[in-house]
Amino acid sequence: MKGMEDWSRSDYCGEITKEQEGTEITLMGWVQRRRDHGGVIFTDLRDRFGLVQVVFSPEVNEDTFELADELRKEYVIAVKGKVKARPEAMINEELATGEVEVYASELKILAEAETPPFMIDDEIKTSEELRLKHRYLDLRRNPMQDNIKLRHNVKQAVREYLDDNRFLEVETPMLTKSTPEGARDFLVPSRVNKGKFYALPQSPQLFKQLLMVSGMDRYFQITRCFRDEDLRADRQPEFTQIDIEMSFMNQEDILDMIEGMIEEVFAAADIEEKLDFPQMSYEEAMKRYGTDRPDTRFDMELIDLSEIVADSDFNVFSGTVADGGQVKGINAKGCADFSRGDIDKLTDFVADYGAKGLAWIKVTEDGVESQIAKFLADEEIDAIIDKMSAEAGDLLLFVADNPKVVAASLGNLRLKLGEELDLIPEDEFDFLWVTDFPLLEWDEDEERYISLHHPFTMPKEEDIELLDEDPTAVKSQAYDLVLNGIEIGGGSIRIHDIDLQKKIFELLDMGADEVEEKFGFLLEAFKYGAPPHGGIAFGLDRLVMLLGNLNTIRDVIAFPKTQRATCLLTDAPSEVDEGQLGELALELEDLELD
Amino acid sequence: MKGMEDWSRSDYCGEITKEQEGTEITLMGWVQRRRDHGGVIFTDLRDRFGLVQVVFSPEVNEDTFELADELRKEYVIAVKGKVKARPEAMINEELATGEVEVYASELKILAEAETPPFMIDDEIKTSEELRLKHRYLDLRRNPMQDNIKLRHNVKQAVREYLDDNRFLEVETPMLTKSTPEGARDFLVPSRVNKGKFYALPQSPQLFKQLLMVSGMDRYFQITRCFRDEDLRADRQPEFTQIDIEMSFMNQEDILDMIEGMIEEVFAAADIEEKLDFPQMSYEEAMKRYGTDRPDTRFDMELIDLSEIVADSDFNVFSGTVADGGQVKGINAKGCADFSRGDIDKLTDFVADYGAKGLAWIKVTEDGVESQIAKFLADEEIDAIIDKMSAEAGDLLLFVADNPKVVAASLGNLRLKLGEELDLIPEDEFDFLWVTDFPLLEWDEDEERYISLHHPFTMPKEEDIELLDEDPTAVKSQAYDLVLNGIEIGGGSIRIHDIDLQKKIFELLDMGADEVEEKFGFLLEAFKYGAPPHGGIAFGLDRLVMLLGNLNTIRDVIAFPKTQRATCLLTDAPSEVDEGQLGELALELEDLELD
Fold it and tell me: Residues that bind ATP, according to the entry (chains A, B) (predicted)?
């Protein structure tokens, strides 16, 4: 195994063009393939920019040809050679460099390679576990290289846009104090201050607000955040956040600014779609889609039928309405041919969201077919059909329950059917700002109000007076950006008034001591002239995943952790010796083996 | 306290020009000063971009004038008003907006402010402790805003340059495995994997090498690193590193690439000096300056006199040489007038570095004056004067000892005198690449070899064969970038060969088990085709500090920690409740109170 000595790479493999015909070049990279044919050795040489065919022929250099016989897949080599145009018949249209090949006059083997545990191909059939264990090999594959490149481009675009708009990048501490984001903190024991702990930040929320108090005016940071959650679905214990805050801007100013950023991000991802950023209130989103992050790429909205059935003889419906509940339905267009079995499966599905049943009406050329038709008056059925714009061939599905259950069950049923019926255009990017969130909700379990966003969220000015009499009626100046039904960012105007902030803490049932200990420094800062301010934060991993049309954020993170929060490559976390713990004044409890 | 309602800022305070005369503008910011004069209230309004004078006159608007009477320092306000040119006599040349003032027609007080604990002025006399406790106020001051802006500009310039050169930004994990940088790791207990710990990275060294194995070709990241050291001098437990790695590049390629980056960084800092990047071997630096990070802004080099005095009758000198030691001197130009007391102080100073004494010769018009002249032959004195280019008025200072003590004592004495004699040009930027470091040194205490850089550093190809017979004679392909005597970056070509890497681990006295546990994944990666690669890392904090001509890295970090590793603003680290520790299966040992 040798170094490159005085060899110097002249070009990247994937960028050799016909215009270079006749020139001597030096390439370095990995052997993707090797074929022997007609007394000549053909290899595909690969680097980050693509492949080129390198030919070893005894007619060019006998020694080089013999050395080339040692080449195997993934060997790292350097070659000097001459660019030749391929004969017309040999042109490979599928390769960017398919018009040329390089006749090697010299070869240096820089590193040998054992057969990798999986092939370095675009499509591979191997477990994610093996990919993560050998991540350095997985990252050699084109799709992964594309993901890393996309992530790079997105970050550069974000920074350039914010820099152009006079934002300042400011770094905030990683070894900090527990933040109030609601999840568990990762703790870091201090050795210098034994018995005390830093927390890794769940977000730089308080620091960015303090930066506004310090007059930074516009702040951003693309930074790592940490949440020690039980890992559900597609979460990582550490994730990257695009964190933004501005002073002296109202909500509309901020949304405008962010829309401009998203447009730059899409341009950087080579997506040339005209983007549109409609707004919808939380209330309307819940009403029409049963969720605060609706996928607006398709219709099938939730239709409220409560008025129509309020006086119905069908007690399941009218009784629910009388008890303060709702009856809502969705129209599964063209699904009148669903079998009883099909519908039973949908019923099981909504049961997971608390629905006690799923009523249905099939609309046919000959009238309706339904288990509940006999309980409903003809006028009621007509009114339902009319309100749901139902036509022959449609299947109408109903849930009668309290608003939460109706929203969850029909909202999720809509998504399920949208997917199964292939109603969702794959290559569309539908944005939606969801606004006017409630400031607080009542938590039954904890018997106190909790913040829907976080305790620093500003109420709508006109609702502030409701804080005393009817807290849950207060709307906030909070906004989420939803893309294709996935929340990619969220933010708010913040409270900058010390008394209002204290009042919110009180409503959240926080005692004066707790407030002082956790947020005393923020309240102290507000004493000295805090500007009106607000901001937003985006989950970078998820954003890049959506831009890349990928299924998991693990594919846009170079070295992700598993669902068990372990790194299969380095074997982190791992045990440490007692001496290290002793320095931290810590002891490990006896652990029962799993 | 109110929000801005429908007010929208039209301009920044510091950017109002005479060209805007007569236009209506809306400004928002902080009241820097307020003066009442001739029935009119003058305020200086401040935002991130500067100050402008805002005038409240009853002739413009009586109500606004009356409201303005409430204004105090650091109130946050919004004003609407008209730009007027100041009369010639009132122009303030020292203010960017000194040609104009704004006559306010409307005023909104956005936030009141108590009197801050220190004034928001460029120069303040207050303890750093108070500044850190109220960092949000400290950051309002112009010098601190300039520092943050400089840091922003440097980071943007670095990224732009590297992006232009086709580097990819890749994020590496923060929750990772113990890295081998030599300092203590900060540990993060895992809750999901009880009894196990992540380590915060001391550097992304291994990950960036793996990224090279993965074919990323050129990587960079500006990332936080962590070292749990006893905090000496100007260190922080968390610091920011510009981390860079490249494949298929030799040392000269890499240095060229980095020099281009530094030039962009200086341009971004508005420093228009022609930069020069000379190289000097470690051996030469130690010989001439007694240190591997010489401050080359001034001369006063260490002169080796060992040959001259080897056979001297003065046994202190000749005996030292005979025992394998050295006699070296520096020429303190024009210091012949130093008193005995002055010289005694210098003797005490070098004693701290192990020197058993400091011999001296004063060169005068009438010959030499010295405590040692009588022991030296005239030819020896003449030869010394000649070799040290001494003239009348110079003071020659000598240390005779082993090379380490000579280097440390005279190297530091040189720096001390350089400073005291005002020999160091303040506004000069002198770079120096120090190269050809020894690969290993023998550690007397641990009785084993240790790496001068780190165990992944590539030996010089021609020295590899010396690894067996004479390990400390092996030079490495390592390089440090020194600026004005401060190391700002360091790196090396890395080993990419599995057998060579194993051999180095053996030399470092690491057992096979330890190697496997700590670096097994790296060695495994090298099996599958690792390209030649190398890189460098810069301490961003220190670099920005030097660019800003500042004395401490705390001034370029928005929220730094104290020497005790605490955050005075948030009071981190802090105690946590037992429940949190219980979830981590940890117990705190009983701590004795300090």
Answer: 227-229, 236, 487, 539-542
Residue where the block lists tokens 């490990």 = A588
- H-only helix segments in A452-551: 466-469, 498-507, 512-526, 540-547
Distance, in Å, from the CA atom of A335 to the CA atom of A329, rounded to the nearest integer, reads 14
Query: Which pLDDT value is given to residue A191?
Result: 93
Residues 6 or more apart whose CB falls under 8 angstroms from that of B375 comprise: B312, B313, B314, B316
User: pLDDT tens across A281-315, in order?
Assistant: 999 999 999 999 999 999 999 999 999 999 999 99
Beta bridge partners of B479: B435, B491
Rounded-to-integer distance, Cα B45 and Cα B34, Å = 9
pLDDT over 70 at A2, yes or no: no
In sequence order, the β-bridge partners of residue B446 are: none
Query: What span, in angstroms and rounded, lies between the C-alpha atoms of A311 and B527?
Result: 76
Instruction: Note whether B255 contacts A: Cβ–Cβ < 8 A.
Output: no
First to last CA, chain A: 45
In angstroms, how far is the first alpha carbon of chain B from the final one?
A: 45
Of B77, B68, B141, whose CA–CA distance to B112 is shortest? B77
The amino acid occupying position A554 is R
Q: Does any CB of chain B come closer than 8 Å to the CB of residue A563?
A: no
Sheet architecture: strand order including A478-483: A168-169, A218-226, A238-247, A533-539, A486-493, A478-483, A431-435, A279-281
* DSSP symbol at A298: S
Query: Averaged over B232-246, what is the pLDDT?
Result: 92
Does the annotation list A236 as a binding residue?
Answer: yes
Is the pLDDT higher at B147 or at B591?
A: B147
pLDDT at B181: 54
3 state SS of B110:
strand
Residues 6+ apart with CB under 8 A from A19: none
Q: How far apart are CA B29 and CA A181, in angstroms?
A: 30
Check residue B2 and give its pLDDT.
Answer: 66
Among the partner residues B137, B198, B589, nearest to A587 by beta-carbon distance: B589
d(CA B235, CA A175): 14
With CA atoms as reference, report the closest residue to A223 among A533, A539, A480. A539
Do the beta carbons of residue B397 and residue B329 sit within 8 Å? yes
pLDDT at site A519 = 92
What is the rounded distance in angstroms from the CA atom of residue B246 to the CA atom of residue B240?
Answer: 20
Which 3 state secondary structure label does DSSP give A14? helix
- On chain A, the residues whose CB falls within 8 A of the CB of B578 are none
Average pLDDT, chain A: 94
Query: Which DSSP string corresponds to A109-164?
Result: EEE-BPPPSS--SSS----HHHHHHTHHHHTTSHHHHHHHHHHHHHHHHHHHHHHH
What whole-number distance in Å separates Cα of residue A122 and Cα of residue A147? 12
DSSP helix/strand/coil, A329: strand
Q: Which residues, at least 6 apart from B272, have a Cβ–Cβ distance to it below 8 Å?
A: B266
For residue A169, list chain B residues with Cβ-Cβ distance below 8 A: 151-152, 155-156
Reduce the DSSP state of residue B442 to 3 states and report it.
strand
- How much is the pLDDT for B286? 97
Q: What are phi and psi of B322, to 5 degrees?
A: -60, -30
By the CB < 8 Å criterion, does A170 face chain B? Answer: yes
Q: What pTM was estimated for this model as a whole?
A: 0.95
- CA-wise closest residue to B350 among B282, B280, B302, B279: B302
Of B140, B253, B531, the CB nearest to A110: B531
**A585 to chain B, closest Cα gap in Å:** 5
Q: Does the bond joining A573 to the residue before it have cis omega, within 30 degrees of 0?
A: yes
**Is A388 buried (19+), middle (13-18) or exposed (0-12) by CB count in 10 A?**
buried
Q: What is the pLDDT of residues A121-150, one digit of tens each?
A: 999 999 999 999 999 999 999 999 999 999
From residue A585, alpha-carbon distances to A195, A252, A347, B591 in Å are 7, 51, 56, 7
Triad A328, A331, A332: Cα angle to 5°: 135
